[in-house]
Specification:
By secondary structure, this protein is an alpha/beta fold. Helix content is 19%, strand content 32%. It has an eleven-stranded mixed sheet with strand order 26-29-30-35-32-33-34-31-1-27-28. It has an eight-stranded parallel β-barrel with strand order 2-14-17-18-19-20-21-22, surrounded by six helices.
Length: 658
Amino acid sequence: MNFRLLTCALALSSAMAGMAQTHVMDVNTKKAGATVQNTMYGLFFEDINYAADGGLYGELVKNRSFEFPQSFMGWQTFGNVTLKDDGPFERCPHYVELAWAGHSERRTGLVNEGYFGIGVLKGEEYRFTVWAKAPKGTARIRVQLIDADTMGERQDFATAKVDINGTEWKKYEVRIKSPRTDNKASLRIFLDGKNPVALEHISLFPVNTFKNRENGMRRDLAQALADMHPGVLRFPGGCIVEGECLENRYQWKNTIGPVENRPLNRNRWEFTFEHRYFPDYFQSYGLGFFEFFQLSEDIGAEPLPVLNVGMACQYQNRNNEKAHVPVDQLDPYIQDCLDLIEFANGDTTTTWGKKRAEMGHPAPFNLKFIGVGNEQWGEFYFERMQKFVDAIRAKHPEIKIIGTSGPDSEGKNFDLGWEAMKRQKVDLVDEHFYRPESWFLSSGLRYEKYDRKGPKVFAGEYACHGKGKKWNHYEASILEAAFMTDLERNADIVHMATYAPMLAHVEGWQWRPDLIWYDNVRLFKSVSYYVQQMYAMNKGTNVLTMTMQGQPIAGQEGQDGLFASSVIDKETGTVIVKVINTSKEKQPVSINLNGIKGERTAETITLTCTDMMAENTLDEPEKIVPQNGTLACEAGKKNTVINDEIAPMTFRLYKVKK
């Protein structure tokens, strides 16, 4: 052969070898499949990582009623300050009395450090409230926002005065406008004058909370939850439902009624991890069940409360039968479930419906689901769960009951859990899986093999925990996106899915990765947040069959790391195709939209990054975010065709009007 021809032939052969095969995908738009539930993609809340106090809950004062075991934790006192315990609120009896320090040049007062500081924003107003009385009839306090930077000319940068009148307890309020943004401010209270004053439930809230509620949520965090368009909100956990012992389990009845009289609870995440120990982590219950229901309503999500099944955390009590409630003593726990349903749905003539109305919500919350038990397993759980199922079915057959398959994604305890939940005929089974990259890559067909006649699936806690990289890096988020195609393809069996955990303070976390991170004035949404949002805002109404050579596209052999699923939104007539390339090479794809003809334009949303370890941060909150675009679709012989090339490790979504 001519040397030049040989060289050209070899070059052509090499070039052809380097060209990736075009992957042909077929979408049947003619036949709408299983209904995608409105609850399909949602949110999981647990008070871990300072998610409630110091996070979503708008209160800026730590230990506002002096009920921490160390009464002045979070406070600095000076001058003549006395702690007393005969206050006006039965379950929060502590308060302080500020008295003259004995000399006109001496000061008496308090400084509160907040949660890793008190965050205030320039131009925003803050509502200071306090329950107070003046033993001598009148007294005055000065309330200040002060700077943590003591090198400045002044410590205080905003001040207000409050006159206290009368010897009986009353609530007082004053507003303070911040002239600047400060992530690390403190709240200082001076006794102004010689007359003593008693102070209880000292509180500081942004006026501008989410939906402007007085006992409300931090606006930017709550708005981030609403912006995800969640279908369900599971609360209040998580392991705090159990407590490390039953004494400090989450008890919903302690979280309702006047906020001043909600008792403190020890948060089991205070001490769970020695390497991330926070001795000031308690639950004020200011964010309680009424507020959870209200938040669900505000963000358009179905409320999903989870209650204790009469068991403490099994991890911490593996061989201690005495840690759990005997089966014949479960009645108070079962009654808690029944009473909660009445609190949520009962009319105002019922005992608990009346309490809801007294808190400002006469209309029912329209509760449809209740979870019993968080992450229990084995016969200890099964025999207790049966008692709850029987009682709830007897009185509230309209409520869907959610049981659990335990903490494992597979294995003996998982299988036993599913068998027990099927026997008990619960409506959904709560599965949890925090797993490495390999698990997410190999689980793209997880739900195809599930029994369609049994309970439905609630993927209640999941996240990709990278091996040796347990943080919110980009690669983990893309693998979560790939796995979620299986949730979508199997919407007939999977009715709910919630990433976990949801919130984390950058200075106070115990667990990661997490969906949303924040300090006292800023936040950033992780890449995983955007993955969840892309699915939640494009869930459609019905599944469409999507295959490659007749097989589901789930990273199988010969599919070159491609995962894909498709839905239709019948209300808008839009076909939505999701494709994730988990390989390190670009992949050409040709998507046949069978049942649609002619040239069209597809809207695209693309999430991509070349650095697998990259993540969003407080300083770069939009480093990795979805990008909107368009793509021309070609007219095939009998269909519309999307021809595209998916970059390595990329999630791309296509929307085409049918």
